[in-house]
Design goal:
Number of strands: 5
Strand content: 5-15%
Strand order of the largest sheet: 2-1-3-4-5
Structural class: alpha/beta
Mean pLDDT: 91
Length: 363
């Protein structure tokens, strides 16, 4: 009975969770599943761009349902693809047939190895165990995900069941598969317990901090040309003095080498495979590279194009819609800073893409 009450409360108050980025929302599963069940919420997965307070940020821009829906952001600083993989896998079949947007941070693809702190800081044992014992994902996908997750084994210290399951999935020998099958009932039971606890924690969050968030009766509409005109008048992003002091000379070779071998591509591929197996309808959104900054530090446009080429190839391989704002990589008014954060103008362009995506084929 308690769980039924908690679930009803989640659906009643889910709109109030849209602007917040608490652990119960980001590390749990219940609230994300509840968001996917609402016809007027669009879930947006991303990283620090969802946190940085900038005018026209989707969280705020759609807060009053101006075109009939609201964006439900999920993410915080350092949410790399491997962390998003856990979130998506945990939502599972609740995503089937539903639209979802994925915001991509290009800088995550500029290093050979994933930042371990980013993964550990976004790791959720509940979400990881949902992946490990998922009925919705293929055994091959779970194997490939487990191989990557075992490279950060410290995250499962003290959780023998998850540790054992990931080892068996990663090993994938006949014995591994037999042992995994043997613990499958225990894993399913553990997930039931974890989901119950997640619902209770969400219920407590509602009781303690969340109030109802009423929706306007009629959408007000958006004059996109006017919104973009105002946003374009923002102060242009100033050049970074630190960048200007770096020695000049071509860095194309090292940039392409790091980009080509980045583990983030493998993890991003796992995300796309997960979206496909779950039957979601995704749209991928990528920030442009900081063209001016990279040019100053010796990375040419030809080298920078490699990112877009690889991203486009992956999106095409999995037949997924991609919006890449490459044409703005030398427009300082697009950016909020020298990181992967859209400015006011950048967010308006994101908002328009999200609005078009949400309303496509829905009328």
């Amino acid at each position: 009975m308690l769980l039924v009450i908690c679930e009803r409360a989640e659906h009643r108050y889910i709109y109030a969770f849209a602007p917040e980025l608490s652990d119960v929302k980001l590390q749990g599963v219940a609230l994300q599943k509840a968001a996917f069940q609402q016809p007027d919420l669009l879930v947006l997965y991303g990283s620090s761009e969802l946190v940085k307070e900038v005018p026209n940020r989707a969280t705020d821009f759609f807060s009053q349902f101006p075109t009939g829906f609201r964006v439900f952001p999920v993410g915080k600083a350092g949410t790399i693809s491997l962390a998003n993989l856990l979130k998506l896998a945990a939502v599972g079949d609740a995503m089937r047939g539903k639209k979802v947007a994925i915001s991509i941070s290009p800088s995550f693809f500029f290093s050979d190895n994933v930042n371990e702190d980013f993964y550990e800081g976004n790791f959720s044992a509940l979400q990881a165990q949902e992946l490990a014992f998922s009925n919705a994902l293929s055994q091959q996908l779970k194997h490939d995900a487990a191989v990557r997750m075992r490279q950060y084994s410290a995250t499962t210290d003290g959780n023998w069941l998850l540790d054992f399951a990931l080892d068996r999935l990663a090993g994938n020998t006949d014995l591994d598969r037999a042992l995994y099958g043997a613990i499958w009932p225990l894993g399913q039971f553990s997930n039931v317990v974890g989901r119950a606890q997640d619902h209770i924690e969400a219920g407590l969050r509602i009781i303690n901090t969340v109030g109802p968030d009423a929706k306007p009766e009629k959408p007000g509409g958006v004059n996109w040309k006017e919104v973009l005109r105002r946003a374009s008048q923002q102060k242009a992003l100033a050049k970074d003095a630190k960048l200007a002091t770096r020695p000049k000379g071509s860095r194309d070779a090292s940039f392409i080498a790091a980009l080509t071998s980045a583990d983030e591509w493998d993890d991003f591929s796992l995300v796309l495979r997960t979206l496909r197996e779950l039957g979601a309808q995704p749209m991928l959104l990528s920030m442009p590279l900081h063209g001016t900054d990279l040019e100053i530090t010796g990375v040419s446009a030809k080298a920078r194009n490699k990112y877009g080429e690889k991203l486009t190839e992956l999106a095409s391989r999995y037949n997924m819609e991609l919006v890449y704002f490459q044409q703005f990589e030398e427009d300082p008014t697009f950016f909020a800073d020298h990181l992967d954060h859209p400015g006011s103008k950048g967010w308006v362009l994101y908002d328009k893409a999200l609005d078009d995506f949400f309303h496509r084929n829905t009328n």
